[in-house]
């Protein structure tokens, strides 16, 4: 099916893609996104790798209902997670060329 030269070329491409994916993962750890709720009264800053860096709560909320504040914090976290996932999908999609993830390389069957 494949000769040695073709196999070597495929392996080289796979190694290059693996290096590019590793580099992209490292870059995602440095990209920050912000989720907010309550018209900006609660903000969460996190990396595109879902590591929370900062939570900001407007002082006016501290005198409010505890349940409402907890809901706003949860909503801000969820908004941040959605943004982080979008950034991650966009960055990784560029590398994989829309192959639907790396599990199976978009349906490509390799002989090993």
TrEMBL record:
Pfam entry (one): YbaB_DNA_bd
Principal subcellular localization: cytoplasm
InterPro entries: YbaB-like_sf, YbaB/EbfC
GO MF, one example: DNA binding
Recorded superkingdom: Bacteria
UniProtKB keywords: Coiled coil, Cytoplasm, DNA-binding
Family recorded in the similarity comment: Belongs to the YbaB/EbfC family.
PANTHER family: NUCLEOID-ASSOCIATED PROTEIN YBAB
Protein task: Binds to DNA and alters its conformation. May be involved in regulation of gene expression, nucleoid organization and DNA protection.
Protein's recorded name: Nucleoid-associated protein AAV94_11215
Organism for this UniProt entry: Lampropedia cohaerens
